[in-house]
Amino acid sequence: MISMKVKQQFVCFQIRNLLILIGTICCIFEGIAEHNWNEQIKDFKPMVVNIETSSEIVFETEVKGTSFATGFIIDAERGIIATNRHVTGSSPSYVKINFYDGSFTEARVLYYNLTHDFGFYQIYPEDIPFELKAVQLGSWKALALGDALLLIGNNEKEEYSIKFGTVTNLNVDKGDRHSSYIHTTFDRTGGSSGSPVWNTKGEVVAIHARGTDTSSFELPIEYLIDALKQIQNNSKIQHGEIGVDLELISIGEAIKHFKLPEASRIEIGPSEASTPKVMQIASIIPRTTGNKLLRASDIIYRINGQLIRDDLYKFDFILNEQVDNTVSLEIYRNGENIVVDIPVENLEHRKLDRFARFSGSIFHDITPELRRLLYFEANGVYLPHAEAGSSFSMLGRRERNGNSKIVIQEMNGHQIVNLDSFIQACQKIPNGAHTYVVIRDFNLFDSSPTPRSLTINLKFGPLQVFEWNQDLLDWKETKIKSSTAANQ
Question: CB neighbours of 175 closer than 8 A, spacing ≥ 6?
Fold first, then answer.
């Protein structure tokens, strides 16, 4: 018979082994769940920059003033820094790049994307007191749900804030045309825009674009890589456009409410990112190639014969490859299967490259983005900002930031078609003249055409026209062609 003492020793032995086993399992899971970033963070910091921008002239709905954000070195040899498009903007601005060692330099906008939230700054590497080192680029496609991620940015204007997060969804649409975002758990606030997002391999797989205090959304790095390759190859960037805003809806909703065939559920299959979804057109931008061929609520099923499912990135990639050609879209419209061929234009050709200053205000052509935001079809010239007390400042309601949303359609009986016709009309107005304009104010509930009158003061605001110089990466004043201005 086994003694009580032996039994106690056996029980203690078993308990000890069990504790060792539990400890081992915990260590294994801890090693899997918690990645040690310490050494990598030291290496990553010199690749991250803090950005300070100051703008006095604004286009579209951009805002004057100073802002702070983050960027990262994406091409050290060429001095290219990546950040968000809402950081670079399209307006003239002064840009200061601050580095980890306390040094700084000025930058110019090299490129910004009109659809997806990224852009590039250009600096001169020889002006930096240390050797620039670029981040290593990876792929968002290699990520899996639950993967650990690292973000380093200018959070709350505090330099090099470290944030840890995980992947919660690999493909969500956040209302920016047809951009795919990665949903993560980073808790971030202002200043983090443009921060690089690393995977545990030390590769940048995304750029932070938007979020709240509890959720964060990152633009996959593939969008940036596609544009960067074209710059590195000294080729002009092509950006395909058919004028659609897309949203993702579940396969169940598409079948029940929009009459997508039940058989499509099997063909689409499961989704690696989330529940199975399909692309639906939420809206169409006026004056684009798809405006008369497509309708809101159309479900895009195939593009050029390829089943597209919920792959927003692939949709954009195919459009970029088909610039100046046509794409074939197989769509479902209220249950009917339709194939439409749509011309693809290059959205890069629709970027603002000219603006005018006149009597204390800024004027430019109506962009596709403005037509999208205002759903505006007609002709005219856009007035985004007028200095307080200037001639045009009383035309309509101004927002708290001082911006206007005014389209001028007629001036002294002359129809305003675009910036050129506006410049011609301005040249005929002498200083102190009483001027009659017809406007549409999109800051008002009723934005119908409304007549207004004003007196033009040109003493401190003569007509000036500026053009974008891609070689200098700067705006330069240009000679006004006509010499018939009455105020000359």
Answer: 245, 247
Domains of the chain: 41-127 (2.40.10.10), 140-232 (2.40.10.10), 240-347 (2.30.42.10), 352-478 (2.30.42.10)
Name residues whose C-beta falls within 8 Å of residue 434's C-beta, 6 or more positions apart in sequence: 453, 454, 455
**pTM for the whole structure:** 0.90
Q: How far apart are CA 436 and CA 46, in angstroms?
A: 56
Please work out, in degrees rounded to the nearest 5, the angle formed at the alpha carbon of residue 298 by the alpha carbons of 292 and 300.
105
Strands 326-333 and 181-184: unpaired
Measured CA to CA, the distance from residue 331 to residue 434 in angstroms comes to: 54
383-403 per-position pLDDT tens digit:
999 998 899 998 999 998 889
3-state secondary structure the chain: CCCHHHHHHHHHHHHHHHHHHHHHHHHHHHHHHCCCCHHHHHHHHHHEEEEEEEECCCCCCCCCEEEEEEEEEEECCCCEEEECHHHHCCCCCEEEEECCCCCEEEEEEEEECCCCCCEEEECCHHHCCCCCCCCCECCHHHCCCCCEEEEEECHHHCCCEEEEEEEEEEEECCCCCCCCEEEECCCCCCCCCCCEEECCCCCEEEEEEEECCCCEEEEEHHHHHHHHHHHHCCCCCCCEECCEEEEEEEHHHHHHHHCCCCCHHHHHCCCCCCCCEEEEEEEECCCCCCCCCCCCCCEEEEECCEECCCCHHHHHHHHHHCCCCEEEEEEEECCEEEEEEEECEEHHHHCCCEEEEECCEEEEECCHHHHHHHCCCCCCEEEEEECCCCCCCCCCCCCCCCEEEEEEEEECCEECCCHHHHHHHHHCCCCCCEEEEEEEECCCCCCCCEEEEEECCCCCCCCEEEEEECCCCEEEEECCCCCCCCCC
Model confidence at 16: pLDDT above 70: no
Distances (CA, A) of 481 to 125, 415, 464, 485: 39, 20, 11, 10
Question: pLDDT tens across 195-220, in order?
Answer: 999 999 999 999 999 987 778 999 99
Residue 236: exposed, middle, or buried by beta-carbon count in 10 A (0-12, 13-18, 19+)? exposed
